[in-house]
Amino acid sequence: MGRAWILCKKTFSLSLIFNALLTIACSVGILAGFYWYFPEWNPFHPYLFNGNIFWVAIAAAALNIFPSALIGRKLKTGRFLFHHYVYGFLVIAFASLYVIAFSPVPLSKIFFVDNTSIAVNTGRFFLLGGLTLVLDDLPDVSKRIDAALNWLKTKVLRGQKFVVAGQVVSGVVSLYIFGAVTIGMLYSPEWITLANVLLILTLLITGVTSFIFVKNKVWHKAGLKHHSKV
Fold first, then answer.
1. Rounded Cα distance, 68 and 78, in Å
2. Taking CA atoms, which of 67, 170, 200, 224 is between 20 and 30 Å from 20?
3. How many CB atoms lie under 10 A from the CB of residue 34?
4. 66 in a structural domain
5. Is the torsion defined by CA of 212, 214, 215, 217 positive or negative?
6. Helices 2-32 + 54-73 axis angle, to 10
């Protein structure tokens, strides 16, 4: 039972990291259309006041990655042959080869174009999945990366009040975008697409998760633990 619970928590941690990356990927795709491909486009107008607000959703997702990974880092799951990051890099490598060979979209533009074909979405899924495994195990990739992450953590935790405030604000904005797009889909049935459904689901999880992390004082606890090691 204990082992099963550990695996469930690890899976939950990886799922949250994946969701954060998915929020970033969805937002980047919309911003790319907003800036490059359709300059006159105002996404989800009039329910969303400005497309630039997706930058805040990206910030919310980025702030969620560390506490999401922290859930899994506490667990002793062991490893099968290699560290998780090795499998992550392998998944990214094979996914990249798949995109190059079978996707109608170049690898360099895979997250920047409006293409929801099975080949493209499959490539996106495995690229994000591989990156999830790498981020989950990032401190173990090398001592230099671990040292750099510890340095960054020290800087961030010094301003944890601002980080928490940023997480609250970006969480609110993520839920606002979720609400705006959802209402838009209700009044404009043509907006009901797989991409938009995925967008509102990932934004909902990102927004709710932001508040859960704030409520549980994740950054404060991380700061206390970090200072106790110094």
1. 19
2. 224
3. 18
4. yes
5. positive
6. 160
Are 96 and 107 spatial neighbours (Cβ–Cβ below 8 Å)? Answer: yes
- Residue 33: inside a domain: yes
The reported pTM is 0.89
Read off the pLDDT of residues 18-47 as tens digits, 9 standing for 90 and up: 999 999 999 999 999 888 878 788 899 899
Task: Give the count of domains, the chain.
Answer: 1
By the 10 Å C-beta count (0-12 exposed, 13-18 middle, 19+ buried), 139 is classed as middle
- Rounded Cα distance between 137 and 72, Å, is 9
Q: Give domain status of residue 230, yes or no.
A: no
Q: How many other C-beta atoms can be found within 10 angstroms of the C-beta atom of residue 94? A: 13
Longest Cα–Cα distance in the chain? 56
Cα 170–Cα 19–Cα 85 angle in degrees, nearest 5: 120
Is residue 54 one of the residues assigned to a domain?
A: yes
pLDDT tens across 158-171, in order? 878 898 999 999 99
pLDDT of residue 148: 81
Closest Cα to residue 191, out of 182, 201, 178?
182
**Closest by alpha carbon to 89, among 134, 138, 142, 135?**
134
- The whole domain housing 182 covers 2-225
- pLDDT number for residue 179: 96
Which residue type is seen at 185? M
How many Cβ atoms from other residues are within 10 Å of residue 219's Cβ? 22
